[in-house]
Amino acid sequence: MFRKVSTLRQTVGCALRINAIRNVHYEQGQSPEPKIREYFYYIDHQGQLFLDDAKMKNFTSCFKEKDFLQFFFKRVKFNNTGRYEEDFPYVSPCGRERNYIRCDDLPIVFTQILETADGEPDLLSCNHTGDKLTLTFDPEKVCMLPETGRIYHPAGDRVGGVGLIKSALAIELSKYFEFSPDKEFEPPVYFTWKGHRYSLTNELIPSLKKMDKFKSPAYVPEI
C-alpha cells in the first residue's frame, strides 16, 4: 500500500533534511538496518497528511487517496521504536517500513460527522477517509478547551485515547456548547445535538492535561 506514494516521496524527500530548530537529521527512505526503510510525515490540525520535508504544506500537497489514508491511520500508534521518539512521537508501521509522524496537535483528527438514519449513532470520520475509517460520535464526551478553542473527542487507546476535531468542524459545533454562569473560562458543561441536551462528562481533561494541551497557543481556524 505504501508503495503507491513512492513517486511523491522521491520528488520531495530524497535530500537530507536538517531541521535547525529540532536538530533532526534524516533522509526519506533511509535504511538504518537491512531491509528496513524509514519515512517521515507531518499531520496538521486539519487532519491533512504530508511528507514532513515537503516545503509547501497545503491541500495540493497533502495525501488524498482514501484507501492509503485508511491504511496509514488505522496503524498509527505511539512511537516506542527507540528512534526519533522525541521529535516523531507516533509511528504507522507497515511491514518493513517505519513511518514516523509528528503533528501540530494529535495524529487522529476528526474531519467530518457522518449522520446516520434510523436512530443509529452518528459517526466521526478520521483524517479525510470518508466512511473508510470512523468512530462512533459520542456527544456527551466532546470537550472544548476555552484556552485554545480546540475541541476533542475520545479516540483509540493506541494514540492516547484522544482525537482532535478539525477546526472548521469545531467552529460549527461550538455554537451548541453551554457554559456555566460566570465560568466562561472553564470547559463547557452542556452540548446540544439533534435536539438533545447532553451533560458533558469532560472526562478527557486529565488526558489533555498530561499532554499539555491546556498550554497550546490559540490559533486562527482555517476554513
Automatic annotation (TrEMBL):
It holds the Pfam family DUF4505. InterPro entries: DUF4505. Belongs to the UPF0598 family. PANTHER family: UPF0598 PROTEIN C8ORF82. This is UPF0598 protein CG30010. It comes from Lingula anatina (Brachiopod). The gene is LOC106156396.
